[in-house]
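Look over this today:
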Amino acid sequence: MAVSGQRTGMRVARLHGAGDLRLGEEPAPRVPVGHSLVRVTAVGLCGSDLHWYGEAGIGDARLREPLVIGHELAGVVAEGPLAGTRVAVDPAIPCGSCELCREGNPNLCPTIRFCGHGDTDGALRDFLAWPSDLLHPLPDRLSDADGAMLEPLGVAIHAVDLGHLHVGGSVAVIGCGPIGLLVLQVARVAGAATVIAVDPLPHRREAARRLGADVVVAPDGVSDEVWQAGGRYGVHAAFEAAGTDHAVGLAVAAARPGGRVVLAGIPDDDRIGFSASQARRKGLTMLLSRRMKDVYPRATSLVTSGRVDVRSLVTATYPLSEVGEAFAAGAARTGLKVVVAP
C-alpha cells in the first residue's frame, strides 16, 4: 500500500485500481448546506466493497477515477445539528422527487447517489460530509461497530420484506455470510417456524446454527429431504445470499410451488442462471433485492431489543492504517464481518 503526501486534514484510503488501495492525506471535506461533518468511527467491509477492491468495479459499474469505498458506517457528528451525537449513516441519497421515490421506492431511484459507489466517495476516511437527515442517532447500548452493522441489517430486512413471509412459514437461506446470517435472524423475528441454512464453510454453518437455524447443511449434503424439513413441498421463501448460480439453483430447488425466491447475492460476472423449467413448473415469484428502503428505525429497534445479534458477526477489527490487511482478511473469508475503525 502506498502512503504519500503531507497531512493536510485527514487520512483517506482511496482505490486506484484492482488491488491498488492507497492510504494518503487529503483536506477535510467542506460541509454543504443541509449536511453535517461526521467523524467516522467504524466501517464494515461489505461483499460489494470486496468486488470494488478485487475487480475495480461491481456489476456494470466500473472504476472511472480513484474512489473512496465503504458504505456500512457509524460515526460522531463533528459539525451540524446533531453535533456530538453518535450516529449510523444511511449511505443512499435518493433524489426524493422522481416518480419512483414518490411511489415509496427510493432504493430504485435512477439518480440515487451511494456512498462509495460511482463518483461518490465513501467511508474509508477520517471524516465525511453527509446529508443531516440521513444520520440516525445511536442508542447508548449500541457500539460504533453495531451502528455500522445496521446497514447490512437493513439490507436483510428489505430482503425479508420482499419474501412476504407469513407467521409460521418456512425459510431457506443459501449463503451464510453476514447478510445471510442477518436474513436468518430477521426471518425468525418475522415469524418463520423453520429455517434451513446452507453454506460450504464450516464456521459459517456453525454461526447459522448458533443464531437459530433448525437445519444446517453444506451444499453437497442437500437433498429433497432437506427441503422437506420446511414442509412437504419445500419452503415458503428461499433467500439467496451467495452470488453464485449454484446458490440460485439451490434456492429454486428449495422453494415450494407458488413460493418466493429472493436474490440478494451479487455475482462476480454480472450474470445469473438457473433452471427455467423448474422455476416455471413451480410458478415461483423471483425477486431481486436492491439495497433497502427507509428501515433504519426498524433495524435499530431489533438490535437494541436484542432480537437480532449483530455484534457476534464482527470477527475482526483493523485500524485505517491497516486497511490493506483488512481487505485481505475479508477476501479470505476466514471469519464473518471485518470492520475498519478509523
Observations:
- The first strand starts at residue 3 and ends at 4.
- The CA atoms of residues 101 and 109 lie 6 Å apart.
- The radius of gyration is 20 Å.
- The mean pLDDT is 95.
